Amino acid sequence: MMAKLKPEDLSRIAEKMRRQTLLREGAGRAKVTVHMGTCGISAGARKIMTTLLGLIDQQQVQDVILTTSGCAGLCSREPMMTVEIKDKAPVKYVDLDEKKTLTIFTDHVLGGEIVTDFALGMGSERVS
Amino acid sequence: MIVQPEGIFYQMLTVENIPNLVEEHLVKGRPVDKLMYVPSKGKPPIPKLSDIAFFSKQRLVVLKNRGLIDPEKIDEYIARDGYQALAKALTSMDSEQVIEQVKGSGLRGRGGAGFSTGLKWELTRKSSGNGKYIICNADEGDPGAFMDRSIIESDPHSVLEGMVIGAYAIGAAEGCIYIREEYPLATKRLHIAIDQAREYGLLGEDILGSGFSFDITVHRGAGAFVCGEETSLIGSLQGQTPEPRIRPPFPAQSGLWGKPTNINNVETWANIPTIINRGAEWFASIGTESSKGTKVFSVVGKVNNTGLVEVPMGMTMREIVFDIGGGIPGGKKFKAVQTGGPSGGCIPESLVDLPIDYERLMEVGSIMGSGGLIVMDEETCMVDVARYFLDFLRSESCGKCTTCREGIAAMHDIVADICNGKGEPENIGLLEELAEAIKDASLCALGGTAPNPVLSTLRYFRDEYDAHIKDKKCPAGVCRALISYRIDPEKCKGCMLCGKHCPEKAIGGEPKGPQTIDLEKCIKCGVCRESCKFEAVLIE
Amino acid sequence: MTQEISIKKNSNGKIGAVMVLGAGVAGIQASLDLADMGYKVYLVENKPSIGGAMAQLDKTFPTNDCAMCLLSPKLVDTARHPNIEIITNADLHKLDGEAGNFTAIIDKRPRYIDEEKCTGCGTCTNNCPVRNIAHFEDVDELGKVHLSQEDQQVIEQILAGHESERAAVISVLQDINARYRYLPEDILRHTAKALDIPLSRVYSIATFYNSFSLVPRGKYVVRVCMGTACHVKGGYQILQALERMLKIASGGTTEDNLFSLEEVRCLGCCGLAPVITVNEDLYGSVKQAKLPKILERYQDESVVAESTVGGTE
Ligand SMILES: Cc1cc2nc3c(=O)[nH]c(=O)nc-3n(C[C@H](O)[C@H](O)[C@H](O)COP(=O)(O)O)c2cc1C
Ligand code: FES
């Protein structure tokens, strides 16, 4: 059982979490987010996730954070994932399958080269 | 300029570039790299999200965390300033101040009716009686809408945080979330989120050491559209047959188990943390005179980019359909947008520049509804759409009011006759008369708004009704009784794929030669048209 | 049963009694007026109860007054009026005589209910086996529940899981539905008893919601989305194609109990319309031509295990 939080604990957790998940805070070299809402999953996001897990395990990659997240909003182009390399803008990939995932993993995640053929765009959405 | 559907952004165009660009990209389908945004030297250029209309026109308030956090980890929500608004409310504001903020923000209910949220909270707060309840309505019944599912799936804590703040303002100790059973993933994530929030003491006794206690339970629906109506939802929670009951008393006076109850939609709750964090003025600065903030829409149907979009109120339909949605697939002609689900109406092309807010939509005979935007093109028959909604409402009417139960069925039969080519000119007057009676005499808004889809299609697409009734033709090629399929011998390459799929073996012809359809055998299932790669199957 | 009504004559040879045929609101009002004037009234009605069409209306034209509020007092007055005798479930068989002295022969159909004892509580209507699946072989069986040991355990466990809830019935039904894919009759009866609510209430809830079924479903439930987005993208054609392929109508189950076909209102995946689900697997952008392949996966036992991940077809 966790201790009950006090208001000031929130920023402490936030700090800790940012260190663990944000690349610029030194969490890792690269971060791959698979978008897994109902749409994404039914379009095959789980296969993408399994493929990535397999690749990371197989090649013993240590410095890549693999995480999931909810729907990215563009249902017609699911499955989607976002690849972010430290100090670079994140890149969104769309219409994925296992083969494309392999290419993206080797070329972009490990090699640092954006796979332009499968990429939708780079950067982040406007949040206000 | 942006070339859709690929969403490639070209910059610094000059008149000289255009012919080249049209030739290369639009005709040959090859994007012109040298005119595109180039991130840095040596790298192949890809467009920036902020340059792609689908993303750039959106403004994320409710969906601020979408795609960025793991919804199953509360810490990631906290890392993006989650629960700060709750801390702020509990430590530095009293409940009246919270309500003042919500009132001042101009936030209106996102569940359909658009009642002022702050006002509703105040009413419930002022109601006498203890043991008040708050309810989150996640029974997203509108077909074609999935905002609430997506919000809960990608950011469940924003809803929980909004609810705790609301409970603090209203003085409620218990909350319920009523979620449809068609959303198993959202339900699962909601349970995880609630457990994690309890562990952190963000739900339960003495939240954040403030002395305020509040907890939330989750209830699943079982597939009944009418359960989205607030009194019916309360009935369902109480284990009764969920029929709407007469109001007053409003839930704010006597709701769940007879206690004052405040009920809001998922999206309404999810707006609250941002309003408390950024202040009422900030929120009120977005949107139009009467409708503040942003609205999440699900853009679906005959549109290139289907998905969930969040835009400031007051954006025009054209921007949503053509810029964000990327226009109609296959170069077809845009016909209408349906908003507001079965209670709403269709907005024709002539009104596509209308800025969207609660009042304007009402003026043109539709409603904001929960946010489903269904785009229709020239191959959508508006009479068929009216028939579809009547069919939906006929089977979802709880049957309590005669006008709703029998009236909708009667309207359905008339419209179905029109679709089947059995319509008479005087049917239109009868439809209008029935619509009036159903509107006047039904108890809840299901019946009260049920004629809207018919009335709005009659208003804007009278010519289609006339074509069905007088010429016995369906211009869009949808109503089966009025169409027949034909193969264009010019276009047919004789691949025989259609014949392979035809369930009635009604298609014949030589390999590599033009095929023909035996109209005697044809059941008009349309599989030939669907499978033809050369668009050789025509509807007439 | 044919019963002859014989009436004493008045001194002037006329009979101070009236027969009113049809106990709708007009017949009722006429009877009340006549009875108040001192005539003996025989109110004959074909249906088992009086009230007619007005009792079924919600509002009346043109004032939009509540129909039952107007009618109910009259119904009660009629039943209580000493001068009115109500003969329901009956037809006029023969009428002889002339004005002032008629002989009427009335056929009264049996009611199968002891009218002396019946209080009109209505519970029997709610439990009517024609409308529900309940069927009672003989009266003693009523209320007896036959559960296998396994079922007994399952239901006890489900009930225990919702013990603390104030209105557990829907949650319990959902759990039963999840376990059996329909609501078996005996288990429903057990539930009604355990939760101490009338069986009729359980049935009215079970029949209200779309996701409950009172008849067994197949091993795989194919649900076709009939939401708006799916409709404009051809969901109805998908449904019809499935009906043809499975040779069942929507709502039915194949003979081998493998597939049931159902319609559902929007699965919240409208971006991928048209959408179908087979049990938990969701398929988006479905085409008619792809359906046989999707179904095949479930027809072949060995493939099923690994296909729990849906895919866009
Ligand atoms: C037939 C009918 C269906 C409704 N369905 C929903 C629904 O699915 N979701 C929802 O939030 N509100 C729905 N509502 C509106 C609710 O009754 C209620 O107004 C709303 O939940 C209030 O929340 P808000 O003030 O945040 O909009 C429906 C109303 C009617 C009459
Ligand atoms: S309309 Fe079919 S999933 Fe929403």
Question: In words, what does this structure look like?
Answer:
Chain A has one domain (27-126): Glutaredoxin (3-Layer(aba) Sandwich). Chain A contains 4 helices and 5 strands; from the N terminus they run αβααβββαβ. Chain A has helices at 7-21, 38-43, 45-58, 98-110, and strands spanning 30-35, 64-69, 81-85, 91-93, 119-122. In chain A, β3 (81-85) and β4 form a beta hairpin. In chain A, α3 (45-58) packs across α4. The radius of gyration of chain A is 16 Å and the shape is globular. The N and C termini of chain A lie far apart (35 Å). The model of chain A has no long low-confidence stretch (mean pLDDT 85). Chain B has 5 domains: 2-51, no CATH class; 74-284, Rossmann fold, CATH 3.40.50.11540; 295-370, Ubiquitin-like (UB roll) (Roll), CATH 3.10.20.600; 382-471, NADH-ubiquinone oxidoreductase 51kDa subunit, iron-sulphur binding domain (de novo design (two linked rop proteins), Up-down Bundle); 484-539, Alpha-Beta Plaits, CATH 3.30.70. In chain B, a hairpin with a 5-residue loop joins β7 (294-301) and β8. In chain B, α4 packs parallel to α8 and α8 (156-170) packs across α11 (266-278). Chain C is elongated, with a radius of gyration of 29 Å. Chain C folds into 3 domains: 2-127, 3-Layer(bba) Sandwich (FAD/NAD(P)-binding domain), CATH 3.50.50.60; 142-208; 220-308, 3-Layer(aba) Sandwich (Glutaredoxin), CATH 3.40.30.10. Chain C has 313 residues and is of the alpha/beta class. In chain C, a hairpin with a 4-residue loop joins β4 and β5. Chains A and B meet through α1, β2 and β5 of A and α2, α3, α4, α7 and α9 of B. The site of FE2/S2 (inorganic) cluster (FES) has 12 residues of chain C, from α8.
Layout: helices, strands, pairs:
The complex is a heterotrimer of chains A (128), B (540) and C (313).
Chain A: H1 7-21, E1 30-35, H2 38-43, H3 45-58, E2 64-69, E3 81-85, E4 91-93, H4 98-110, E5 119-122
Parallel strand pairs in A: 1-2
Antiparallel strand pairs in A: 1-3, 3-4, 4-5
Chain B: E1 2-3, E2 8-9, H1 17-27, H2 53-56, H3 74-79, H4 84-92, H5 95-105, H6 117-126, E3 132-138, H7 147-154, H8 156-170, E4 172-179, H9 184-199, E5 215-220, H10 230-237, E6 261-265, H11 266-278, H12 280-284, E7 294-301, E8 307-312, H13 317-324, E9 334-339, E10 345-348, H14 358-363, E11 372-377, H15 382-396, H16 402-419, H17 427-441, H18 445-449, H19 452-460, H20 462-469, E12 485-487, H21 497-501, E13 507-508, E14 516-517, H22 527-531, E15 537-539
Chain C: E1 2-4, E2 17-21, H1 25-36, E3 40-44, E4 59-60, E5 65-66, H2 67-80, E6 84-87, E7 90-98, E8 101-108, H3 123-126, H4 149-161, H5 169-180, H6 185-195, H7 199-208, E9 220-225, H8 228-232, H9 235-246, E10 259-264, E11 276-278, E12 281-283, H10 291-299, H11 301-304
Helix pairs in contact in C: 1-2, 4-6, 5-6, 6-7
The structure holds flavin mononucleotide and FE2/S2 (inorganic) cluster.
